[in-house]
Design a protein that fits this description.
Layout lengths: L1 H9 L4 E3 H8 L3 H13 L3 E8 L6 E5 L8 E3 L6 E3 L5 E7 L1 H11 L10 E5 L8 E3 L29 H12 L15 E8 L2 E10 L17 H7 L5 E6 L5 H15 L5 E6 L1 H10 L12
Length: 298
């Protein structure tokens, strides 16, 4: 890998691409990704992210996790504004000083200094190996929801239960006895180590949005520039769930996906899930928390 980066530096290429590395070596993309992650953890490579404009294909600027708080960008080349998606972001691996020292020791020659060559690859879902979107029907902890259709709960959407009532309901389904009171700076509204997904137990962090946020849930309703979503993904969890009593807009899906994809670069298996008003109603109805005999004014 270090030799491959050096070969690109010798010809003056700013970046090598992962596909070229796969073709040269005959090793799968997933195996190379695992190798790159190990090299990063060992300090041989550093990781950065670059955003490309989908309109003119120009590199807009380098990203760090803090930039994810702004989901809309302006291209300095074509002047167009655009909402970044996962397809517009690339991961860049560049050699560190420790990597240069390792290269010298391994190959007994100086590392080329023509350019600081790096390896670039798309931030994308590698056949579900690193991160994955799941639905409420995939989660065994909410298995009763599979018996409830969207039509059965249409009369209760948008859900008119308070956020506190919804939190207590979800906590009881998960078997969480203690539900902390909410406060403005919390990274998540509900945290549980008892969520069951595909036969395994995972930790889950929830961002809950009750009827106080009327209409579709947008990034603007998730804190300043979506920072509530970013704080959610910083939790030490494997599953990240955003819940709302009504419709959830596409930009919330995309920002949550980007944030989870970044965190998965550490090599963790992560999942994310969106519960809109219909799925929220299905879960609560399935467990007797919502229905014709339940008060909706709590």
């Amino acid at each position: 890998m270090l030799q491959y980066l050096a070969s690109r530096a010798e010809v003056g290429d700013k970046y090598a691409d992962l596909q070229g590395l796969v073709e040269r070596s005959g090793i799968s993309e997933l195996r190379w990704h695992e190798t790159l992650c190990r090299a990063h953890r060992a300090g041989l490579l550093k990781v950065s992210y670059e955003l490309r404009c989908p309109n003119c294909d120009a590199d807009v600027f380098a990203l760090s996790s803090k930039h994810l708080a702004t989901a809309t960008y302006a291209c300095d080349v074509c002047g167009e504004r655009f909402l970044a998606t996962i397809d517009d972001i690339s991961t860049v691996y560049a050699i560190t000083r420790a990597g240069i020292v390792a290269y010298r020791r391994m190959f007994r020659k100086p590392y080329p200094r023509l350019v600081a060559a790096g390896l670039r690859e798309p931030v994308s879902n590698r056949a579900g190996e690193i991160w994955e979107m799941v639905t409420v029907d995939d989660i065994e902890s909410f298995e009763r929801v599979r018996r409830i259709s969207s039509q059965q709960v249409a009369a209760w959407v948008p859900v008119r239960l308070s956020e506190r009532h919804i939190k207590e309901g979800l906590a009881s389904i998960l078997g969480e006895r203690f539900v902390p009171l909410g406060w403005g700076g919390e990274p998540s509204d509900l945290f549980s180590s008892r969520l069951s997904l595909r036969g395994r137990r995972y930790t889950a962090a929830f961002l809950l949005k009750g009827p106080a946020k009327k209409g579709p849930l947008t990034i603007e309703k998730c804190g300043k520039r979506g920072n509530q979503i970013l704080r959610l993904v910083k939790e030490p969890a494997n599953v990240f769930i955003v819940q709302h009593v009504d419709e959830v807009s596409q930009d919330v899906f995309e920002l949550l996906e980007i944030a989870v994809a970044y965190k998965s670069l550490r090599g963790e298996k992560l999942f994310y899930c969106i519960l809109d008003g219909t799925d929220t109603a299905r879960v609560l109805f399935a467990y007797g928390i919502l229905g014709p005999t339940v008060s909706h004014s709590k």
